[in-house]
Model the fold of this input.
Amino acid sequence: MRSPRRERQVEIGSWVPTVEEVRARQMPPTLVFIRVPEVKTVKNRLHLDVSPIDRSTENEVSRLLGLGATRADVGQGTDRNWVVMADPEGNESCVLRTLVQG
Done:
């Protein structure tokens, strides 16, 4: 979801926890992507693989494309069930098969 606080920030997994959830440490992971002025100069030090839990793989790829991501070719071929994506700065991650039952 795009953060209303900053247009240069995308937050995934954000939610407003209750006091009880915080005390019980029942908080799902949240990732925050913030644009920086420097350009990418080296290979990613962290690689994320995500599996959609509320939509198909194709719908998640479309959502990420709408947020500014692009498809990336790292030599994976066309017969894979995952999609390599790059954020606007060129950092790669993969969208794996969906975990939606159906």
Summary: Residues 1-5 have pLDDT under 50 and may be disordered. The chain is about 15% helix and 20% strand.
